[in-house]
Amino acid sequence: MSLESTLMSHSPLSISVPELLEVKIIDKLANKRLPGDLAMWFFILAELTVFAIFFIGFAIAEQLHSDMFIVSKAKLHPIAGLINTIALITSSLFIALSVRAIHLNQVKRSINLLVISQVIACVYLVVKIWEYQFLFNIGIDIETNTFFTLYFLITFFHFMHVLLGMVILLIIGINAKKGAYQEDISGFESGASYWHMVDMLWIILFPLIYVI
Amino acid sequence: MITLKQTIISWLFLIILTFSSVYIGQVIETPEYLIALVLLIVFLKGQQVTDVFMELRTAPKMWRLLLLGYVFIIPAVICVIYLL
């Protein structure tokens, strides 16, 4: 029962303070909702844990081989990392707007925003492939040194997550078009949350590899 | 539900923070300050994604704290490793 409806059904003198507080608490709890499915959030936590090990491993390796990491990082293009960061953040924005539209039952608008988000995500894929190609062309690969082993391992693992996120959002877009989210939008929200996680991981990855 | 205005402001904040971290990387030469500032920016960006994009500001407290804990603890651990 909402606070408003309780107040409407009681005269101001008949409602006690404890009753009012109880209704307030119920109202607050009712608004606390986890977007998407619980299973997806456990999956997100598992993914974040795996990446946390990578991030900490990278930082320890950098401390052990600091000279090698400085020289190797100089061979990367920070602008490529910057473009990818902007692409993923902007793609996340459009997914957030798409979720908002589906909340408001604007299915067509939601699908359009989802498509824009995925077009922007393609910028990330193109830049990342270009970056790998550039490194291969100057004779650098996964076996060059510890930095590049970790660089290729972590960034390619992230790249695969971006691809998986895009597949999930493609399926969500098709389902939305079929009218699957007219009543229950938790599947839509789950896919969006996964995409935001991919964005969040890059937010940590970008300074670790390109800035520090 | 997070408002449209909040979402757009959050995106702008994330973009500004991204450029700020690159700028800091170019101008600050003291490694301690550079690492601390850049990782602080990581936390601020993570908080925006958690609260606004993921809409965890209005979610049960435990989930919000788990995600905010992640974007605070991981950069903090990395910071300690670099500064040791």
TrEMBL record, chain B:
Intracellular or extracellular location(s): Cell membrane
Keyword Signal among record annotations: no
Entry keyword annotation includes Cell membrane: yes
Major subcellular location class: membrane
Membrane topology annotation: Multi-pass membrane protein
Domain of life of the organism encoding this protein: Bacteria
One cellular component term from this protein's GO annotations in UniProt: plasma membrane
Transmembrane regions: 7-28, 65-83
This protein's UniProt keywords: Cell membrane, Membrane, Transmembrane, Transmembrane helix
Name of the protein this chain belongs to: Thiosulfate reductase
Species annotation: Colwellia hornerae
